[in-house]
């Protein structure tokens, strides 16, 4: 019988093997070929750059008031304001462009901080339940179901009333109540991964449970974890904006987009741009995060590639 290792290969087969792209090249190709991923990434990077460079980009102090210059129209209504206040001023004379720029910092800070807190809690609970199963899974499932029975928005409003409205309280409340989706997804994926051959082999070799979870299981759930993280980040930003809009979130004079919407309600018929500008910023940020998450899911999906 001819040894398979010494079976002669054609020149075409050798060329195909040499020219076959590496896994990183394939990943790069998928990334640059996915327009949803690229569009979301570009918008997020732009908003991130604006947030980081806010002290350099903002023409005025976002907290500086000037009652003699209140409710100045933006440049498309009055060209005279283009140099001093391009997007006009609010009801107490604060520069609107500066507040929008600094508002990006607040939204990104809340989104990222909430995602890290809720992601840590949900991932630990989900992986633990999925790997150990049995009574551990039953207890964690009870905790997840208890959390799902609690409406996040109402609980967040109650917590803010009890502990006071501030940026720190909003981040902690959202972080402690938005982990359920992480837990459910991580539990499901871990239950599938724990029965794979390489996990069984590591267990048979006597590897410790923490080693198996960290080195064998976690890298395989990381792709799904990042997708869930983008969804929850967008959700946290919208929840903060809703809380601030109702007066239960970030308090004045902090330049939050949700708070700016709240302050502009009484002028919506006379100065609609006060509502339109922060609303547009929120729209593009949430849209970009969702586009990025959707594209990331497709980029990391190897099936059919």
What would you note in describing this structure?
This protein has 13 helices and no strands. The protein has helices at 11-19, 23-33, 35-52, 54-57, 96-132, 134-148, 152-163, 167-177, 180-193, 197-204, 209-245, 257-263, 273-300. The longest helix has 37 residues, at 96-132. 69% of the residues lie in helices and 0% in strands. Helix 10 packs across helix 11 (209-245). It has 305 residues and is an all-alpha fold. It is elongated, with a radius of gyration of 25 Å. It has one domain (49-59, 86-300): MetI-like (MetI-like fold, Orthogonal Bundle), CATH 1.10.3720.10.
What's the CATH first level? Answer: Mainly Alpha
Round the mean pLDDT to the nearest integer and report it: 84
Order of helices and strands: HHHHHHHHHHHHH
**Which CATH architecture?**
Orthogonal Bundle
> Roughly how much helix do the residues carry, as a percent range?
55-70%
For the sheet with most strands, the description reads:
none
Shape annotation: elongated
The CATH topology annotation reads as: MetI-like fold
**Helix count from the secondary structure assignment:** 13
Number of domains: 1
Structural class based on helices, strands and sheet pairing? mainly alpha
Poorly predicted sequence stretches spanning 5 or more consecutive residues: 1-5
Which range does the strand content fall in?
Answer: under 5%
Distance between the termini: 36 Å
Using DSSP, what is the number of strands?
0
Give the radius of gyration.
25 Å
Question: Would you identify the CATH H-level superfamily?
Answer: MetI-like
